[in-house]
Amino acid sequence: MTPTLPALLCLGLSVGLGTQVQAGTLPKPTLWAEPGPLVTRGSPVTIWCQGTLGDQKFHLVKEGRQTPWDRLSPLEAGDKAKFSIPYMTQVYAGRYRCYYISPSGRSEPSDTLELVVTGAHRKPALSALPSPVVASGGNVTLQCGSQDRYDRFILTKEGEHKSSWTLDTQQHPNRQTRALFPVGPVTPSHRGTFRCYGYFRDKPQVWSHPSDPLELLVSGGSGKPSLLTPQGPVVASGQSLTLQCRSAISYDRFALAKEGARVLRQRPARQPQAGLSQAHFRLGQVSGLHGGRYRCYGGHNLSSLWSAPSDPLDILVAGWFPATLSLSVQLGPSVAAGQNVTLLCQSWSPMDTFLLSKEGVVHPPLRIGLQHRAGQNQAQFSMGPVILAHGGTYRCYSSLSRDPYLLSQPSDPLELMVSASPPEDYTVENLVRMAVAALILLGLGILLFQARHGHGGTQDAARS
């Protein structure tokens, strides 16, 4: 019958690594855990110690204990022993070694096995900056953070050869602890699924629950798609939001990534017409969480690489702050083409950034820092010499620089009307010339009239 580690530990039959074990000339055994050295709290785990064939007795050594745990008879193969933990807890987390004794002597101790229990604390959050999709040759930073004040974070990557990296935490201004794991220059071998854990320095083998998984993807050099939204870049809180990724290349699938987010949305491509592939990403009703910078990628089913990223699309969520703003134009709402026009946005709320948006355009709003004047916060948007295309409906918003994607309620709309430029003959310079010429002609007319009037009067006097 196979003994179990909990029962034997209760009997005091385990050993501390501090105990001096005289090593003999026999080769060291191999020590490993199944299903692995990271064990979820409450799950079973098996520790194996494998030596050489022959009559031997195995000893398992745990750091901090006093006596060895003996395995008197090996398994049928005759070269390894099995030590079982049916229910993993913090008690069994630690560093282990094993050795064996045979008639030929005592073996060298095995390499150290570090048995870790996970799930003892709350999970941290793992995100990729700027995006979980990275161009080949580029760089990305994986950020692990938590409200719990962990001393260290561990980043793990799944795969045949599971890897891990450990960093001390940093204090963040919002009272979080975090660690930044730089990755790059990125190659296709970097793609995979990552998780992170937190732990405290005094218990290095007792880890938190794992973070949600983050899949890191690598993009190649194929043509970038386009990302747009029918609603425009400024959307109202509660409005339904859909982003559209499209390309002239016949991709089989598209992916949408939000900067700083963990989730990568994927959709199969549709081909509404020849030479065009696209996918719609319906994000539901808008909340503050939707604000941010998005990119999309195209992919083929026969390749693990994604395309180059689309140009970034910033989604700005309006209605997040109850600020009262006013928008006005210095020359009045009706201006002539060619005139210099300035729109003035004013607020009585303590915001530090103003944005000017025009209805019906896809490009991002103009953004400018505030200017203090007469107790008000305001910003002036200079539009230079206007053309007919500047006409339209404008609104302004305010925001805070620490949350650039969350906007206030909009100002009332301002309708800017731009009339065509006057004909070239009616420029100011020509009008002055025409006025001077008119005055000269008028003066000549008066002189002629006086001359005629004076001559007629002389003849009348002679007759009388």
UniProtKB/TrEMBL annotation:
Molecular function as annotated in GO: inhibitory MHC class I receptor activity
Keywords assigned by UniProt, alphabetized: Cell membrane, Disulfide bond, Glycoprotein, Immunoglobulin domain, Membrane, Repeat, Signal, Transmembrane, Transmembrane helix
Gene3D superfamilies, per database record: Immunoglobulins
InterPro entries from the UniProt entry: Ig-like_dom, Ig-like_dom_sf, Ig-like_fold, Ig-like_Receptors_ImmuneReg, Ig_sub, Immunoglobulin_dom
Signal peptide: 1-23
SMART domains membership: IG
Domain of life of the native organism: Eukaryota
Protein localization: Cell membrane
BP term (GO), one: immune response-regulating signaling pathway
Membrane topology, as annotated: Single-pass membrane protein
GO cellular component: plasma membrane
Residue ranges of domain Ig-like in the record: 124-196
Keyword Membrane attached: yes
Annotated PANTHER family: LEUKOCYTE IMMUNOGLOBULIN-LIKE RECEPTOR SUBFAMILY A MEMBER 5, MHC CLASS I NK CELL RECEPTOR
The protein's name: Ig-like domain-containing protein
Organism of provenance: Sus scrofa (Pig)
